[in-house]
Records
---
Amino acid sequence: MPSYRAPVEDTLFLLNDVFGMDKYSNLPGFADATPDLVEAILVEGAKLAEEVLQPLNQSGDREGCSRTDDGTVTTPKGFGDAYTQFSEGGWIGLSADTEYGGQGLPSTLTVAMNEYLCSANMAFSMYPGLTQGAIAAIQTHGSPEQKQTYLPNMLTGAWTGTMNLTEAHCGTDLGLIRTKAVPQGDGSYAISGSKIFISAGDHDLSQNVIHLVLARIEGAPEGTKGISLFIVPKFVLDENGEPGERNPVVCGALEEKMGIHGNSTCVMNYDGAKGWLIGEENKGLRAMFTMMNEARLGVAVQGLSQSEVAYQNAAAYTKDRLQGRALTGAKAPDKAADPIIVHPDVRRTLMSIRAINEAGRALVLWTALQGDVSHRSDDEKARQAGDDMMGLMTPVLKGVLTDRGFDNAVMAQQMFGGHGYIAEWGMEQFVRDARISMIYEGANGIQALDLVGRKLPTNGGRAIMGFFNEVGTFLQEAGAEETIAPLAASLKAGVDDLQKATMWFMQNAMAKPDNAGAGSVDYMHLFGLVAMGFMWVKMARVAAAKLAEGGDSKEEFYRTKLVLARFYMERLMPETAMRLARISAGCDTVMELPAEAF
């Protein structure tokens, strides 16, 4: 039976010591987020994850969801009670607007909490996670009446939310959507069509499901310029705002999946269902992207979460599993063999996973703070800088942390040998669950193209220049500190590779766009290596300062940070040179063969 312990100490170290969350106390919601309150929230969230959700992860995977002939879906045993506890705890509205019943705390806390939920039970966490995304879309683009109608019940968890984009004939290319919307003359529209891969499309956890559906109004322009977004509830609301008659939107089938069996991934059929336009006609993608960006950060957290829980179980196993003797002589002479943690390659594997996890967690929280600034600051320049960084880092986080998360889950599984292949130990579930995170919310190749083709050139490259300036200023300060100088030098080498790659694209991708396409994934990972290296030097700098002060009970914690920072710079950061070489090779070989040769 696998186990999980939420990394509360690490999260608090990042929020309090590395990023100085108290520096943001001038922003709405941050003044209330005192260190004591933040710790209390994370400790309670950890308890919920560890004691309520984690015990349902394996059983929920084995049981899965079931669909009846009328299209209603039942979730695995225990999910209903767990959802009730989750909702009653106020977790869905932790960072939402107080006007609609939320607690108004920083979104960064919700992101931190979501890691714990995903590690404990990724399939369960998707039900409230999608609801939070739908809340964000309605909050940003909905009318005052729509906000008052839907948000209070969604914030309590009484109603849940989904997003409906994908159709059988189109995935990322949303301009091909065929679902249609016909005006009814009373302000509503009749929505008809079919959507696939709809997570949490139907279930028994809430009283109503509020679908956000992309559709094309009759006569709208072709392509993405003619797409609108609609609110389509499972139950149409009566005159009192309560769920009334059943809307003709049903789960036609449950997808048979590789993983996340505890989440109801549905084919949703709309047969003239009542829907209401959210935002402007033909501007649906703009509204949906609010939800998609929330989801992409959430999926990045999923990649991190599966890597973390897989690591924890692998590390524990390597301390117990006896096999062979250490190369330098027996370390447990009283036993038939040594625990496999004594072997260098086992340690290399575990440290590789952990170095990514801890830097990935830091990068996620750092980015979430930029998002809070972009939404809450009254300083226009600060808002712009925060929005720039959030937009730049979203594809990096989604692509890199999910690619690495899956790879790490596989490496952690390897530590178990044959037992890793057996369901009883739980490792194969982490591998299966992690795999979807690389695919949905835009497959990672699309994230890389988004980064290179859209995010880099936007506003004349303002976001990437802002990143280089911030890292460069930090390196000037940190590089002068004796303990940190070697780490700063390694980071500087990675930054130089990233700048060279960026310049190569500027010189070679305009005239020959395939050069950008061929190098985009390597660029995304090069960027991720540098960004995580930036986080490691930040963490190491604080840890070194704490050790220099002395008298702290967490000396071992800080020393471990310094060792992991050195490991990252020695073993992982050198990959930037490899990535640069691949990017600089261009597209000629990639594009040379005719299609028939494949």
---
Amino acid sequence: MPERFYNMRPKDPQDTVQACSDIPLKSYYTAEDIPDSHAERVNVAPGEAPYHRGFHPSGYRSKPWRIFQLSGFGKPEDENERIKFLLKNGETGFIMEHDRNTADHCYNVDHPEVLARREDVGLTGAVMQSVRDTAICLDGLPMDTSFGHAGGAVVQHAPFALAAYWAVAKKRGYDLSKLAGTGQSDFNLTYLGCVTKQQIPTDAGLRFNGDIIEFCTEHLPRWVPVSIAGYNGADTGLTPDQELGSLFANAAEYLDEIKLRGRIPLEVAARGCGGVSFRASIKIFEEACKMRAARLMWSDLLKQRYGINDERVANLRIHCVTAGSKMAYQQPMNNLVRGALMAVSAVLGGVQSLGVSGYDEALSIPSEHAHQMSVRIQQILMEETGLTDVTDPLGGSYYVETLTAQLVEKAWAFFEEILARGGYLACLDSGWLHAKAEENQHKEFMQTESGEANIVGVTMAHDDSSPFEIDGFIGSDDAFDVALERLKEVKRTRHEKGAKTALKDLERVCRGSDNIMPVMMDCLEAEATLGEVGDVYREVFGDWRTPIQC
């Protein structure tokens, strides 16, 4: 029989089945399986501590999740056009993506490392080397009414990206105290996942993030200053319980730092770093339970470790993106189904904003059609399925409540192990977290290779013919050339003395202990460039000593 007519092989009832978090799964569950400590919380109403049942009593009935897609490529005007396309198609917030060849390392396009791969410039985001580029990208966008993500996912890039966004907003007359949006500045991305060639040491990164939290407290109270991305830890290889444990260990690092500084109330800082990002993968129930577990853990962490009970702070805000690493390049249209099902898991878990990976993610950044379909998936779930009718529709399920409790237990164990090893940043510096992620990657690979785990269209039900090929992403081929000319133009026409003075002030602040953000704002307003800021970092802080060998 041809392989394409494959029928699922029944499993032996005695076979061991495990969740991704290495939790053995029974064939069915009863009330007796729910741990006593968790059973007491099952009947807590949504919107009440510890919030595992949802962020609000009416849930999505009154507060639909934000449709929040990552977008960007090529020149700033290319990214501007794509964001406008997404907003027109129903996106309710926008995420700017910066070119990773330049942004991650804080390089200008004339840096030798970028010149050596000039063909790649603009493939993974728009090239934005100065405030002029950011202004082009934001042209005509509703900064005052849309929830914007300014980019700056990487720790060392965040101060520049945020300052550029805010400088444009100020120039357009917006009151920064009323501006809503989010930064990211996430350690998991380039210290654990896509490790860059040059980035500042982790202690300097912690200082930067502490400075951003304090600056936003004073000047941008509606802005989410940092967003810890469990997503990047999970896509690197961490299991759901490890994603939870490491994320909250990172949060504890921030809160301990802010407490040590003693400049702002700890409750305010907790609110600032209480907007996080998780990955929604393909195991629907485990992923939904992970979101429920995250809310519960955050509430307990604040109450038990920091004595914080304020519901506005203890009620975790979750952004979620479906797992790009689970998208296959074989039979890519299957990824529409994967994306929709992963989005269902996030919605069942009660996230407040959501992005769906493009069906062509394994091949390129999203094409215009793939981006549109990612929005349409969310609109169908929101408008046609009934998923928004009831808050926490899985609440009370014997299986869901048991698995939620088990995830919490395992995640706290991982959290405590991280703290026992010196904390989250120490586990990055030592390579211990990298080893954990690699171990899980190897295990998943071997399960796929052996046939223990199947991927439709990849390890089974595949066909050598390709009747459903996709067009894929078509970008711009002039991103490097335009960026180079614009860099020259900025340096030729700016007030050079003002730029140099601002950069000297930045170096002075980096060598001291003042908050970096006021002088970073000065740098952007004086049109200092990304590479010049990066040069200051490299001179003052040096480079992180990577604990892994590539």
---
Amino acid sequence: MDSHGAWTSPLQAADVAAAGLRFSGVVVAADGTLWWAEGRPAEGGRVAVLRRGPDAQADAVEEFAPALDARTRVHEYGGGSWAPVPGGGLVLASAADQRWFHVAAPGAEPRPLVPADGVRYADPVPWGRGVLLVAEEQSATGRGGALRRSLVHVPLDGSAATAGPTELFTGPGFLAAPRVSPDGRRLVWISWDHPDMPWQRTQVWTAQLADGPDGPRLDDARVLAGAEGRESLVHSGFAPDGTVLVVSDRSGFWNLCEVAEDGELRALLPEDAEQGFPPWTFGTTSWAALGDGPDDDRIALLHAATGQGQVGYRLDVLHRRSGRLDVLELPFTAYLPAVSAAGGWIGAVAASPELSARVVRVDALAGEVLTARTSGVSPDPAFLPVPEFLTVPSERGRSVHAYRYPPTHPDHGSDGAAPHVLFVHGGPTAQSLAAYSPEVAFFTSRGIGVVDVQYGGSTGYGRAYREALDGNWGIVDVEDCAAVARYLVAEGLAAPGKVGIRGGSAGGFTVLAALTGTDAFSAGTSYYGVADLRALAEDTHDFESRYLDSLVGPLPAAADVYAQRAPLHHVDGLTCPVLLLQGADDPVVPRQQAETFADALHRKGLPHALVVFPGEQHGFRRAENVVASLEAELSFYGQVWGFDPPGIPRLSLR
């Protein structure tokens, strides 16, 4: 019998890349027409926007020429890079120069809407004869310096292509989620300032929208909610009757609330469960108004569903005035935070442990689901692991949540100790959900167990769990991962000496910190991970340039803490091999971090490899690089743990 790790799997790295359409948004119209965006690894990661008509048998049509790539880099993470507009067609950002265009009909020639002057825009909302956008002007101070952001209006007739857009509002450091009332007379948006992140403290603004002889303007802009206290207000918008809605964590959990004119909040469905998500990107929302008129109070709502400690997400229909919840019996456990609704239809991106991510249209009354697009074909269910929810005791009386995916193959039993790899999500203010992942199946179908760790600091479990990492990044996350690793061995699930850890970005920092600070792991893979905290604080982009104030401490007062927590300064404590995978053009975690850590490994004489991928930024988008990184990782584990994965090129270790 083949050893764990060397099982013959039908799921190749190329299949993972091919299944990797990355959906990033969905919009549904009142007639049932769907639009969505998908990143395509086979086309170098290009983001295309597709439209499918209301007919269930309709074909999907790409809305613009393949020469365009609908991505914006506002806040570097982007999002909110396109929107359909009244009268047909859509507006979108071009990744090449960050200029915005109007495409009047599928295949039509894109018409520029703004100058090619380097200003970035995101989060479009149609209004009047154009769209409102968040603008971000690059600063001469360079990376890490303060940038100027504003709300602007861009007409669709192209008149701003040379003159530039009309500025409506500026002031706070960060602006997001501008949303227009149903009557077109009012605007709400979110703001925050350094050193806060939007999941820590934000404010909701409101203003009157007017279109005068000199062009659009905002009148009486004021803070509506969040002026006092430390409260995260996200996903702002309007109900059909003009009531402002926002998701607030005032109760300890993000819950959807009405906002009165005096700023008072009323939770619509009070529960100790999350109804919101951290807005890492633009275009994030957990709710959408279903009704087309002021008397229809239905809201499509994503909310966490807890059972036996397990967190999944549901899509249900909430009646705003009565609080009644119409439960939709849908076969999904995970959703992209980008729900849309109109005319009784709900548009969403959904998945489950057995179903790959897919764009769906849901009939809110009948609960019927139309699948418009899937991210790829799932393998035979016999090769798909069933996630097991774990709650593991950690340090200082805390517990950590995790999902375990056991080795799964129809020709091999899953009993007995097997190699395991802990998957550490990024953020670190983020989470991973129990849903089909071709990356997970790539390992489990070869006999390697996977555990997704929701370490302290993860979202999905309320504000207190999220804030467990405040001042403790590199401590709580490491303790929680080590606790899970030791639990796996103690319970006989993992083979002693065969537990690894992998993660990307902030997850990569936790990997390196766990490897240098504990003896719980025998191998580690860092995808564009942070090795030097001080260098990150001084050389990252504006959106996250003060993030470490809360995770570690403010500089320069906490300089000693930064040095003590940096994995780069503790390589002497590292005793196991390390694989470093890095994008050459990463603006978030520059490649120098990986190179410096690799140099330290070389000086210590530890087996390691550094693979740098030209043209990649923060996250690998190109199919060939997804393939190369997965195969390198599997070969790495094989060399460390003593198995030879069939058909996998051998990675050269130094």
